[in-house]
Amino acid sequence: MYACPCVPTGSHLLMYFATYIIGQTPFPEFTVVGMVDDVQVRYYDSVTQRAVSNSHNDSKHYDEEQHDDIVIFRDMYYNLKDRAYYLKDILNLSDGVHVHQRLAGCELLENDKPGLVYTWDAFNGQMKEWGTFDAKTKTLQINLSLIRAWDQHKSLNVNFLYENIYYPICLKILRRNLNMKKSSILQKVKPRVRLLKKVLAASHEVQITCLVTGFYPRDIDLTLVRDGQAAVDGKITGGNLLPNGDGTYQIRKSLLISVKELHGRHNYSCAINHPSLNNTLDIMFGTEKHSAKYMKIGLHMASNSKILNIWNLRELYHG
């Protein structure tokens, strides 16, 4: 349902995925999952009413983190509950299952520079609201499409909460987890590349595909190149980022061209930019000599990636 905000390479996000459910389901009434980039660092639900974090019980920050988590999660619980029932009533909905969800968090830019606080709300997966808080200007921008507009007193109160509670706690948790999880969150794993070619008999076309896999972090730029320029003509498909089972990612792009064009005087290549690479990796579709070279590059990257510890991602919903 949600897509995280696009932030510059080298920045980091702490995002909370909160879900409140009206009606009978096998799930807790309220759940929250906290993620720093791709690593789960928090979990809370209304059944246990306890925040589970990645800190050990004897951590010097444990009690402080528990207090901060409870403050944030209970506020989320009551806020989402009130909004969910309010929307159910004004929309004159039946007594079935209804879901109110929130994605909220903060970013830390390069050089430890604080970014914005983000929030998105959705009710039954259809109507959405969003908001941002800028700590520099101390301004809160909210797009209210689900509930009635706030009066001045309400606006001042919410702005105070963002400035003095939500923002400082979120930033503190993000920085602390980045320090604790450097081996996983801050690691860089080089991509492995496969070039594929498939003849489509029905259309008399050739599909050339660049598959890039096994890389971390998720930020990557994959471009199919024709004669030194990004391929804009023809039929380009793919480009969706997908998770692997080991915590790394994969992406592929394909281009449909005619058989005549393939054997013409055109050069096709796959250009990859990733934080783990010092320069653009440009691999050309072509001769067996080239293919052997690419295989060597891929094997070299694979051996490097095995040196790094890859963690398993917990199963999380993608609404």
UniProtKB/TrEMBL annotation:
Any one GO cellular component localisation term in the record: extracellular space
PROSITE patterns: IG_LIKE (PS50835)
GO biological process, one term: immune response
InterPro entries found in the cross-reference section: Ig-like_dom, Ig-like_dom_sf, Ig-like_fold, Ig_C1-set, MHC_class-I_related, MHC_I-like_Ag-recog, MHC_I-like_Ag-recog_sf, MHC_I/II-like_Ag-recog
Keywords tagged on the record: Glycoprotein
Domain of life: Eukaryota
Start and end residues of each Ig-like domain: 191-282
The protein, known as: Ig-like domain-containing protein
Organism per entry: Sinocyclocheilus rhinocerous
Lineage, broadest ranks: Eukaryota, Metazoa, Chordata, Craniata, Vertebrata
